[in-house]
Amino acid sequence: MSALPPQLLIKPFTRPVRGEVMPPGSKSITNRALLLAALCPQPVTLTEALFSEDSQLMIEALRALGLTVEAQAPRRLIRVSGQENAFKAERVALFVGLAGTAARFLTALCAAAPAGIYGIDGTARMRERPMGGVIAALRALGADIRCLAQEGYLPIEIHARGLRGGEVEIDAQESSQFLSALLLVAPLASAPITVRAVGGVRLPFVRLTVGMMAQFGQQHVTEPAPGTFHVPAPASYARPSGELAIEADASAASYLLALPVVAGGELVLAGLLTPAASLQGDIRFADALRAAGAQIGAHAHGLAARWEPGWVRRGITRQFTDYSDTFLTLAAIAPLLQGPTVITGIAHTRHQETDRVAGAAAELRRLGQHVIETEDSLEIHPRPLRTSVEIETYGDHRFAMSFAILGCHDLHGNGRPWLTIKHPACCGKTFPSFFDLLARLHAGSH
Fold first, then answer.
1. Is residue 325 among the annotated active site residues?
2. Domain boundary pick from 245, 263, 284
3. Tens digits of per-residue pLDDT, 266-319?
């Protein structure tokens, strides 16, 4: 990744985008695969893996826990071995940065360890992100987890003694990662576990977790009712082939799928699976773009997004609860759509890297748009776009990438830049090469 300046002026596309790109490996799948590989008895190699801040934090945590993790970024390979050396230290300190996935998954992993004392902490913002649901459920299964500052938040200290089985309820309204974390370690318990989500949960990511558990030998996890899961235990993980290919990231792909809507042309996203084949719920963002007027379909190498001159960009109404990591992509391009765009089901995103609902409303208003904000929704009414706008990213990768796609729109009709992204390097959290890739596509469109 090239070094990025504090402020990056986005170059509009003066010609339709053309080409083929490969999105990074899925963050959700990479981090789950790292944890599952750590629980296998033999080495596991991950191919097409994501290399980003989030995955690096998980790698460093596994190393601190005693595993050997060899990472080859240019080849997108990660090899996890030395599982027999894990959890041998009496005391381990783990730092999770702003990675919610790492924070929740490592909390469950350490709580399921047979012994040891594990401290987990993160950035100031991560200390504000909720952890209470997973902590309460693990405590109900016998875990000794101590919140060192505020109950339900980092930093925490875990005095590991394993988990017992039984029935447990979990409040996963704030994050489906709570339930996924518990499911991933449930086979390590001393007896079977039945866990029921109370108050609602976004199930696509949970079912991704169950699907990946099956890939690592746990094919008998059942869902007797929506949001209720039964996990046989004790049971061992295994990946007999010793290898797992990581899907392309559907969340990261949302920006690239939206680029032809903004710039015209056709872009092939290599390695991106169709909705029928993908484990990732975020692939449903393709349906939102289709509703807005884009043509998106299977390609020999992945998925292709297409937009032709004369097609009408339509404002749409969409419920984003189950694929909310992509809502900012739609919100950012909403000023180009005809008619209002209504995005609902996003209240939980107020507790992510930043308050994404409030942040989106603020940046769209900065661009001159009329925005109606509620706790759970945004209603965006297109207005003429202001020029010379600097977009605040709040340290949130999704703001940087979503609004950069809007900046690719040739607002003046002559290629003159009009939108600046502040602190673009925050995209390193999940897509370090994003702006390099965007620059290559821009160069290739001339």
1. yes
2. 245
3. 999 999 998 888 999 999 999 999 999 999 999 999 999 999 999 999 999 999
Residue (of 66, 6, 72, 77) closest to 39 by Cα position: 66
Q: Measure Cα distances from 239 to 122, 218, 264 in Å.
A: 31, 10, 43
Query: Which phi-psi region, left, alpha or beta, contains residue 220 (left: φ > 0; alpha: ψ -120 to 50)?
Result: alpha
Considering the domain architecture, whether residues 19 and 57 belong to the same structural domain is answered as no
Exposed, middle or buried, 162 (CB in 10 Å: 0-12/13-18/19+)?
middle
d(CA 315, CA 307): 16
Structure tokens belonging to residue 275? 């909705």
pTM: 0.91
Q: Is 419 helix (H, G, I), strand (E, B) or coil?
A: strand
Tally of domains within the chain: 2
What is the chain's alpha carbon radius of gyration, rounded to the nearest angstrom? 22
Give the model confidence (pLDDT) of 389-443 as tens digits: 999 999 999 999 999 999 999 999 999 999 999 999 999 999 999 999 999 999 9
In a domain, residue 114? The reply is yes
Extract the runs of DSSP E, i.e. beta strands, from 133-182: 144-147, 156-159, 166-171
Residue keyed to tokens 């060899």 = 70
Q: Which of 196, 214, 245 is the last residue of a domain?
A: 245
Residue 79, SS3 per DSSP? strand
How far is it, in rounded angstroms, from Cα 355 to Cα 347? Answer: 9
In a domain? residue 1: no
Catalytic-role residue among 171, 249, 282, 325: 325
Alpha-carbon gap, residue 46 to 36, rounded angstroms = 11
CA distances from 68 to 30, 38, 39, 64, 310 (A): 16, 9, 12, 9, 55
Q: Is the dihedral of CA 132, 282, 259, 25 positive or negative?
A: positive
**DSSP letter string, 282-331:** GGGHHHHHHHHT-EEEEETTEEEEEE-TTPPPB--EEE-GGGGGGHHHHH
